[in-house]
């Protein structure tokens, strides 16, 4: 649509948005976010994304920190587990499906997130990701706090060991970019630099808690006045041995001794036997995963009682069978990260045209050929790389006709409904309202560049 037509729906005065026609905005937000995402001029794209985010705030969808809720969970666990949803492709449509289901079941405790690696291969920088999520909220009429999170803001071990300062500065730069884009929830992962050669557990965890403390200080120096970014730490690299109480205690005690920057961590990610994306067998099916729920219960109890954290975080859970999810609230898990299962629903849907799916797979065989490991079947290769099929050809995904996208979104919406129920976050809008007060941070709109 023409930006000049926006003046029928909004007024910009002294840098602030005033709504003239809220329902009119909802009707044009589809084209507005599409134009922003695929704008070729970087400066104009940034200006459009900021404009959309400011419109969302005026409509009542406010980027927020989940800190207040997590502090309440640390005092008195309310019996639910917050789903953190990574969206790799068709982000606008998928986020709309999340908001629709959340409004239907009165859920308020849910997070949208994107990991360091995903930002790269899905071609979604933080400002784009947050603007797309907030545009989806506007489209669905969702009002209230919107939790957007940087997931696995991770130190890459080989880079860190080769030359630590550039790697640390890269993660600091990513944190700066994310907080500026209104990610008010940041998960720091320095578990990659744990030194298992040391004999004592605290010495093993020392590089982890020292780097987590340094990065957390960086976050605290960026957060908006009056706001408190929720920060997570991690002790268990996915795929390694299960975490134990000694490691959790050593990490958190070391962090608290080292970190002097105000409010500390709100949660702790641990390892309980999962792997990101699941383990795919030669025929393309997924191996069954056995989560150590006793570990989750013990560690969540420990970090809550001894350190006042919200509880522990489970990664790599979206491919678990349906009957497993009720165990997360039962074990006091505060947050669970979900990604690949939603991607699988999109790719495996009967509504996705076979010729388009084959086009994406052909692209992967060409572009990711170096990742085809010796001994891998084609099914295993495709499964392990198809997360990278969303980025470069993002526009082709967004341009799929509505009669393709809508039934796929219905499948996803049903899945979100099941997860919200199993994780017991239905009817959590009220506790979120009581514990979370979003801080509205208005960004400067470049009206000259946009011709407004």
Summarize the structure.
With 452 residues, the chain is an alpha/beta fold. It has helices spanning 22-37, 42-58, 67-75, 91-105, 116-121, 126-140, 157-162, 164-180, 201-220, 245-258, 293-307, 327-330, 340-348, 354-367, 378-385, 394-398, 402-422, 429-435, 447-450; strands at residues 10-13, 16-19, 61-64, 82-86, 111-115, 144-154, 185-189, 230-234, 267-270, 312-314, 335-338.
Description of the structure:
The chain is α/β, with parallel strands linked by helices and 452 residues long. It folds into three domains: 9-54, no CATH class; 61-346 and 415-435, Aldolase class I (TIM Barrel, Alpha-Beta Barrel), CATH 3.20.20.70; 350-398, no CATH class. The chain has helices at residues 22-37, 42-58, 67-75, 91-105, 116-121, 126-140, 157-162, 164-180, 201-220, 245-258, 293-307, 327-330, 340-348, 354-367, 378-385, 394-398, 402-422, 429-435, 447-450, and strands spanning 10-13, 16-19, 61-64, 82-86, 111-115, 144-154, 185-189, 230-234, 267-270, 312-314, 335-338. The strands form two sheets. An eight-stranded parallel β-barrel has the order 4-5-6-7-8-9-10-11, surrounded by five helices. Strand 10 (312-314), helix 12 (327-330) and strand 11 (335-338) form a beta-alpha-beta unit. Helix 2 (42-58) runs parallel beside helix 6 (126-140), helix 4 (91-105) packs across helix 6 and helix 9 crosses helix 10 (245-258).
